[in-house]
Amino acid sequence: ARADWKEGVKKKQVGVSDMTLLSQITNEAINENLMKRWLNQEIYTYIGHVLISVNPFKDLGIYSETVLESYKGKNLLEMPPHVFAIAEASYHHMNSYKENHGESGAGKTEAAKRIMQYIAAVSGGKSSSIQEIKDMVLATNPLLESFGCAKTLRNNNSSRHGKYLEIQFNDQGEPVGAVITNYLLEKNRVVGQIDNERNFHIFYQLTKAAPPEYQETFGLQGPESFLYTSRSGCLDVDDINDVTDFNETIKAMGVVGLQKTEQDEIFKMLSIILWLGNVIFVEDDNGNAAISDGDVANFIAYLMEVDGEALSKALTQRVMETQRGGRRGSVYEVPLNVTQANSVRNALAKSIYERLFEWIVTRVNKSLEARGVAQYMIGVLDIYGFEIFDDNNFEQLCINYVNEKLQQIFIELTLKAEQEEYVREQIHWTPIKFFNNKVVCELIEEKRPPGVFAALNDACATAHADSGAADNSFVQRLGFLSTNAHFESRGSKFLIRHYAGEVLYNIDGMTDKNKDSLLKDLLDLAASSTNQFISHTLFPERIDPNSKKRPPTAGDKIKASCNALVSKLMQCHPSYIRTIKPNDNRSSTEYDQKRVLHQVQYLGLCENIRVRRAGFAYRTTFEKFVERFYLLCPKTGYAGENIWNGDSVTGANEILRHNNIPADEWQMGTSKVFIRHPETIFALENLRDKYWHNMATRIQRAWRAHVRYKHECARKIQRFWRQNKYNIGYLQMRDYGNQILGGRKERRRFSLLSMRRFTGDYLDIKNGSGFSTMVRNAITFRSGEEVVFSMRGNTLVPRPMRSSVPSPRTFVLTNQSLHIVVATKNGKMVQMTDEKAISLSVINSASVSSMRDDWVVLHLDNSPDGDSILSCYFKTELLTHMLQQTNGRIKVNVNPQIQYAKKGGKSVTMKFVKDEKIKHDDVYKSHVVHVPTGEPANSQPFPSCPVKPRPVKQSAPRKAPGPRNPAAGRTSAPRPTPSQVAAPAAAPMAQHTTMASPMAGSQASRARAAPPAPAPVPVPAPAAPSPPQPAPGVPLFKAIYPFKSQEEGEIAFEKEDLLEIVEKDENGWWLARKDGKEGWVPSNYLEEYTPPRSSPPPPPPVARRAPPPPAASSQPSVASVASAIMPNGLGLGPPAPKPMIPAKPSAGGKPSVPSRPGGVASTPRAPPRPGSAAPPNAAASLADAVSYPWYIGQSLHLSYFCLIK
């Protein structure tokens, strides 16, 4: 038959891809199906899980990355038959069932390479060590191909050795290491090949592409210059580029970790072998062998680093030693003839190459050692297949023996073991007859009765000196095997009926090849080399003349290694790739039906199909089945967890029945569950995968909801951060200031407010107008000087012959200096002067007292004017900014008394005395400061008030913006609401003209928007009804702190006041009633009140004193703010504390803004804004001013001009 393969034409699916579906199961039907598919460029066909590959002898482009990707994660039925599908099934089975796999009987190097390519591509792991393992595993292919493959008559890249590669994986399915085992290197090819074949590829690569340094050092020339590479007459191959392959070999050596020095030694050994082939022997006058060209021998001695005379002697003479009674006898030097000398030369060359190849494999294995714990493995066996030549000798016997053992594994695991398992598991089964080749394996390897290898060893042992006599002895011993039906003796030949056919072996020279020993003369020569690679690495053994132990023969070695291989493969779950040659001419268009039919017969494909069709495609123990598929039944699995507590047999039944698997599709054995068709197990696997996909979808949905919630929270946090980020720096500065004086100085109550912030530039010197502009213009700022703090205060001014007195000043602190600005009158104008600029670098320390005063002494270095004494309400903040600007260099001293230096260096002591008569500020007189008692030094800031709830109930309609009362919506008749409580009437407004202010417009708008205040209520008559008494059971709470309301809807109270709680909210704000008014109060300011038993009932409520008349605006007047912030004014003297009476009109004629009842200077709920320094009981105008810092600077500027008018 001829194939007409046209590229680019879409193929039709012909034949059956799985031959278990053939209508007729005969060898002829199998052959016809394979031919149809091969002619259609479909070279792969299944028999169950066994892959049949028919060699196309051309590149079909079916191993690309695209094709590889298409097989990832697919089962055998989802994609057309392919070697990638077998590799995917093995890798998936290893990961899923945690079983080792062996790709046994692949037979072709190409199939093994594709399996390695696929596993390296699909296995997980992106780390450098795992990727390094993958690269090295793939690099072993070109390296071992160069040293182990050669051109034969049938194949241009024929494996002339067996290789078993174990790829080791961790429990994550990632490759962590590999091990290579070498079998049956055809070392005879080194010294001779038949016509039109070649030596190993590496010799042609080296002679054609060796770099100049190798050519000069090793004397390398073209392959035609060496006997070992030119004898067969084939130097080039059409589809092989030796130069390119040499570069790939060098690259692979680097990948697997061979150093440059190791590479040099490898190529030196190859050069020695090539030059050994050029040693020509001639007969001398005595008929003995002599070297025709001594220069060649001397050059080889130079490469081997041995004596030239010793090399020539070892090649032409043999040392014989006689023994008598266990004692050493005489030593004779026996000359060799030409034939014997050629044999010795060839033996040395073969030994060097074989040992070099074994060393390369060992060295590669060292580089491939596992980088972690190896849990599982996938093995790939690549060994040349069954061989039948015209002249078959010892090499073919060994190769065919190994193939018989591999066939036996195939029979044991796919035919014999399967049927035995059905019987053992009591499964209904129709036995299938098949040929078991175990008898052939025993014929070759058995010791009792002796097989071929045993007879060969006996012949070598009895006639070891004469190879001819040994061969004759072997022929005699083979006569004992004539009773075996699979053996036939034919004189100097014998025939063995292998599973693949009859093979006639030639006995001539078998005994010598079986000895596999090197002459003692050659071993001594190698040991004498000064090259450590030769004397210690390649030839490390030393002969013990007194040892009587027979060294192992070649037959012993191959039998031991083959049995070890079989033991490994029997422990695996093997997948098979059976390769078939369509013709012997390497033609891509010729299909030899007779040749293929013979291979189909001896491979046992027909029996394999019968067993597969009659048997069960899948079987596993009950425990493993339940562990694998418990997810598919609600009785065995829930939420991804195995919840089955019964026996495994019942669990397996539940899973199969729940998924509606037909009863004829599965059977239960005694310990395993059997499933007939692979489609069923693939369906179960698909359901299992979908379960995890569904669970993954649920997790993704929950995760997306979680991420959405996190983003929402992040946006809330960001929104809050943007609203408050500027305050955080102020709070951090405040905390730093508290650390400076914490525990050493009594505190002002104002300093303990939870909302106290170190704002810094209270006078807005940097950006403000009016007064701020005057101060800014008075100071000559240096380059880079920035304002960080500004505040009003006092400084001690010396007077002639009298004590110093405090005088008002403005303090402006920059990042370089402290400026003290004084305001003086020049007629009717005010002039600002930078009285003193103190560089921060000259301030070495600062002193404050341990009491609650406001004095600070700055100790200066070498100042002629002495130290500076300042009085500032925000002294702690002033010191904090100084320390921050100087990186903490200034030392802060806290003492009961302060010593400072006056002008001229005179030392003065400032004393501090506690004086309870002083109610608010301290009083300075003649170096003595009278100070009221402050809060304890270890006082902590008051707790922050919780966020109050919304004042309007859910059922109540939301009111329009503007002043509102949260309790106004309540409808209880006996409960008065704030709208029913009497309120003061507005005082008549005098007509005044005031200076224009940037805030005037906003204040006026607030005044216009506010509703008119109700008229004042007169004192009630005695007969007026009193407010209703609290109902029995209504809880009363006593105030433990005073609280001043700051927002509408809150009510103020003093310490010890009693309040009736109407409603408690979980967020810490309670709705309370006091004196008939309802409003919100913080719960942490109250404690439950238990009235004494003998206390009389509470008196009726008295009339409340009328509050001050309201102004048109709810904001404090600029005059009241100025009087609070600047208690000393501009030399006008500090105002005395006054009771809450209606405020008088300001100097400009505009009525002042009344304060809301109850200031907040002493409450921890609503701290004043920085910029106010009034004592806790100062006027309400100060409270309002510090509560609204955004207009402090402007109101200060305006108040200043109002005062001086």
TrEMBL record:
Residues 982-1010, 1112-1124 have a biased composition (Low complexity). GO terms for molecular function: actin filament binding; ATP binding; hydrolase activity; microfilament motor activity. GO terms for cellular component: actin cortical patch; cell tip; myosin complex; plasma membrane. Residues 14-689 form the Myosin motor domain. ATP binds at residues 102-109. Residues 562-584 are annotated as: Actin-binding. It is found in: Cytoplasm, Cytoskeleton, Actin patch. Residues 1011-1030, 1093-1111 have a biased composition (Pro residues). Residues 1032-1091 form the SH3 domain. Keywords: Actin-binding, ATP-binding, Cytoplasm, Hydrolase, Motor protein, Myosin, Nucleotide-binding, Phosphoprotein, SH3 domain. It holds the Pfam family Myosin_TH1. SUPFAM superfamilies: P-loop containing nucleoside triphosphate hydrolases, SH3-domain. Residues 747-937 form the TH1 domain. InterPro entries: Kinesin_motor_dom_sf, Myosin_head_motor_dom-like, Myosin_TH1, MYSc_Myo1, P-loop_NTPase, SH3-like_dom_sf, SH3_domain. Residues 931-1030, 1075-1179 are annotated as: Disordered. It comes from the Eukaryota. SMART domains: MYSc, SH3. One of its GO terms (biological process) is actin filament organization. Belongs to the TRAFAC class myosin-kinesin ATPase superfamily. Myosin family. This is Myosin-1. The lineage of its organism: Eukaryota, Fungi, Fungi incertae sedis, Mucoromycota, Mucoromycotina.
